Amino acid sequence: MFRLFFLFPCFTLAQYPKAMDFSKLYQGKIDSLVVIHRMGWTRETSWPEAPEEEHITERRELLPLSEGNRLLRILRNKRGYKEEYPLLNDVVSSFLFYANGNEVLTIHFSPETKQLTMYKGDELIFAGMSKGKLTKKLIRYLYPNLSAKELYMNFFILWEEI
């Protein structure tokens, strides 16, 4: 009984996945795609000798419309999602899709843990992990200047499904 008391906080703080709801995924045309690339560390991901408890930098970039439409097509593929949720909270980058000046889809993605959450407005339509071509494309948008070898060494070497 005493052990169960210590497990209870773990269960209450755990994040649960949400299955992808493809009916709520944005199906129309977009005007623009903005990528907000965040780098750094949080309290959970810092190391003992870290100079600060938390440090996050941010860089914004407008991607070409063709790239945004290509990413929307990849998002419609049902094999790009994994209904698991990573245990570690990490610094996430964001992809903001705009149509007619309004934000129609928001994606939060962590390259280190493959954590992926999607929102249509304020409504959560997916929480879990990305895999396969979706992961590769999101990382390629975040790190456009890395060579294929550097991308593989930094992100894909420990991932079994890629």
- Residues in helices, as a percent range: 25-40%
Helix-and-strand structural type? alpha+beta
**Whole-angstrom Rg:** 17 Å
Q: Number of DSSP helices?
A: 4
The chain-level mean pLDDT equals 79
Overall, the morphology is globular
DSSP, total strands? 7
Strand content: 25-35%
* Oligomer classification: single chain
Q: Tell me the strand order in the biggest sheet.
A: 2-1-4-5-6-7-3
- Largest sheet features: 7 strands, antiparallel
Give the helices and strands as they follow along the chain. Answer: HEEHEEEEEHH
Kindly describe this structure:
The N terminus and C terminus are likely disordered. The longest helix has 12 residues. This protein has four helices and seven strands; from the N terminus they run αββαβββββαα. It is globular and about 50 Å long. It is an alpha+beta fold and 162 residues long. The protein starts with a helix and ends in a 6-residue tail after the last helix. Helix content is 27%, strand content 31%.
Condensed summary:
By secondary structure, the chain is an alpha+beta fold. The protein has helices spanning about 1-15, 65-75, 130-140, 150-155, and strands spanning about 30-40, 55-65, 80, 95-100, 100-110, 115-120, 125-130.
